[in-house]
Amino acid sequence: MKVVVDLTLCQDHGQCAIAAPEVFRMNGEGRLEYDGSPGEGRREAAEDAADVCPVQAITIED
């Protein structure tokens, strides 16, 4: 599984970091950082984060 964030769409709302902190986090500057290959065990969390993204910047690829 691969997590892809379109950083041209992302507005750093941080909803993904709240939904899936094991995959997404906000750095000290308030910018998104994420694990692009979190493993299948984190698929549900990554999908939840994609669902709550207000600008739909997150996609999950197999």
Task: Report what the structure shows.
The chain is of the alpha+beta class and 62 residues long. Helices cover 24% and strands 23% of the residues. The chain has a single domain, classed as Alpha-Beta Plaits. It is built from two helices and four strands. A hairpin with a 5-residue loop joins strand 2 and strand 3. The termini are close together.
Structural descriptors:
single chain, 2 helices, Alpha-Beta Plaits, 23% strand, 24% helix, 62 residues, alpha+beta, two-stranded antiparallel sheet
Calculate the mean pLDDT score and round it.
Answer: 98
CATH architecture designation? 2-Layer Sandwich
Number of strands: 4
CATH class: Alpha Beta
Terminal Cα separation, in Å?
5 Å
Shape: globular
Query: Which H/E pattern describes the elements?
Result: EHEEHE
Uncertain spans, ≥5 residues at pLDDT below 50? none
Structural class by SSE content: alpha+beta
CATH topology: Alpha-Beta Plaits
Please report the number of helical segments. Answer: 2
Q: Report the biggest beta sheet as strand number plus sense, adding barrel if it closes.
A: 2 strands, antiparallel
Determine the fraction of residues in helical runs and give it as a percent range: 10-25%
